[in-house]
Amino acid sequence: MVQPTNKIQMKYDRDADVLYCSFGDPQEAISIETEKGIIVRKNPENDQVVGVTIANFFQRFADRPDQAVNVCLEEEAVA
Questions:
Q1: 3-state DSSP assignment of residue 33
Q2: Cα(22)–Cα(35) distance, rounded to whole angstroms?
Q3: Under 8 Å CB-to-CB from 75, ≥6 apart: which residues?
Q4: Residue 23: exposed, middle, or buried by beta-carbon count in 10 A (0-12, 13-18, 19+)?
Q5: pLDDT per residue over 23-48, tens digit each?
Q6: For residue range 54-70, what is the model confidence (pLDDT) as tens digits?
Q7: Which one, of 31, 29, 23, lies nearest residue 44 by Cα?
């Protein structure tokens, strides 16, 4: 579940090509890589998603400029 908030903070690091998103004010959290280059940050006390980090952000959009980049908030099952 995503933390309820009326504020999303986003910061893009052009040199590293990384987008950082925080739902509400940034806070300490555990990081879980849900797929390659997608890191979901969760509050360890209540398991709510408090942020998302997307590596190679520009590259993901450049490869498919007319499509959305989907972010899975849960770990993908490994078969």
A1: strand
A2: 18
A3: 32, 34
A4: buried
A5: 988 889 999 998 889 999 999 999 99
A6: 999 988 878 777 877 67
A7: 29
CA-wise closest residue to 71 among 9, 12, 2, 8: 2
Nearest to 48 by CA among 70, 64, 24, 71: 24
User: Can you tell me whether residue 63 is helix, strand or coil?
Assistant: helix
* Full strand arrangement of the beta sheet holding 30-35: 8-13, 18-23, 49-55, 38-42, 30-35
- Tell me the sheet residues that pair with 39: 33, 53
Token pair of 68, please? Answer: 């959305």
Residues paired with 33 in a beta bridge: 39
CB count within 10 Å of CB 51 equals: 23
Backbone φ and ψ of 45, nearest 5° = -80, -35
